[in-house]
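lol ok so funny story. i was supposed to be doing the assay writeup but got distracted and ended up predicting the structure for this chain instead. priorities right. anyway since i did it might as well share w the group, maybe its usefull for someone
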Amino acid sequence: MNVRAPAILCAARPHGETAVIAQLLTADHGLLAGYVAGGRGRQLRPVVIPGNLVEVDLRSRSDSQLPFARLELVESRGPWLNEPLPAAAIQWATTLTATVLPERHAYPTIYQALTGLLEAICCAPSARGWGRALVGYEALLLRELGYGGERSAGEDLPGVLAEMDRLAGPLDHYLLADRRGDVMAARARLRDLLGRMA
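and the output, tada:
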């Protein structure tokens, strides 16, 4: 596998002393995993943040081997990680994506939607500006993976919260049923923060 493409970094798990295993979403190749040497080092730590837009260069000798990944930062989400609500939204969107998408299956619509959602989270003055995009993204994931996912979010924050409550069951039952770890905990934290605003 030899891939060079723009990507959204969705997850980074520590591996060994200084490396990470990164999961990256690309438009044409889908979700890809790669070994990033020195990913926890001083130079790459600001690059290996979920939500960051990167240019990835993946290389492997065979399809059965985990590719080596080189990452170049294009746009950082680091400045928004100091704010609890945007940080929780970025964490939920990227964690959900990394958890539910199968590797090496292209989902260009999901890539574009996640790009737009992350941009909205970082550019909107408040959650009222990106709440509908978030529930729309959840519904899109359900729909693209074959589980329906009709969206009926209202314009206001109470409508968004009602839609989040409605989608919680299908997300947990269909997309996250066989996953290890409590992925929905990130969503519950985000829902709690949004509920305090309403």
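Residues 135 and 164 are 6 Å apart (CA to CA). Residues 2-75 form a domain with the OB fold (Dihydrolipoamide Acetyltransferase, E2P) fold (CATH 2.40.50.140).
back to the writeup now i swear
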